[in-house]
Amino acid sequence: MSHYTTTELVVNDVNSFVDAIVECWESARGHKITREDVEVLDEPDHLYGFQNDRRDQKANVIIRRDKVGNASNDIGFMIKDGKATAFISEFDSSKYSQKWQGKVKQRYSINVTKKAAIKKGWKIEESWVDGKCKLITSKYVTV
Questions:
Q1: Domain for residue 114, yes or no?
Q2: Fewer CB within 10 Å, N or C, the chain?
Q3: What is the pTM for the complete model shown?
């Protein structure tokens, strides 16, 4: 049985976080998932291993093993008090590594920034150079 390792990141906007997971998923596994493939729960639920064994870990954002890949475990994130604790099995950490989690964190930050700028009436575009994102803003002009 592969055990889960945990990492933490700051998350205050669950919707932007789920969007980040969906947007980064293909880079890890080579196939896409949709928002509907990610469970967002009011009450945390148990994660399950590749043999359908119930694990002690619980999460309120879960990608079930059938979406993760063959012989995979559920991947979960427990979001509480502005922090997301990731539960990713040793087996799955080869694809959903610290590097992948860094991409999710970066995409989450971009999503939150863009959402805030748009809310304040700014037009915002992404420009990528050498793996770094530059956000270009301009104020909407109303006629």
A1: no
A2: C
A3: 0.85
Contact 117, 110 (CB under 8 A): no
What pLDDT score does 16 carry? 95
C-alpha to C-alpha distance for 103 and 112, rounded to whole angstroms: 14
pLDDT for 126:
84
Tens-digit pLDDT profile for residues 43-73: 999 999 999 999 999 999 999 999 998 789 9
Closest CA to 61 of 3, 2, 9, 113: 9
**84 inside domain:** yes
- Per the domain annotation, does 64 fall within a domain? yes
**Residue 116 identity:** A
Its domain, for residue 13, covers 4-104
Q: 143 in a domain, yes or no? A: no
Cα–Cα distances (Å) from 23 to 31, 33, 52, 77, in that order, read 11, 8, 27, 16
Count other C-beta atoms under 10 Å from residue 117's C-beta. 15
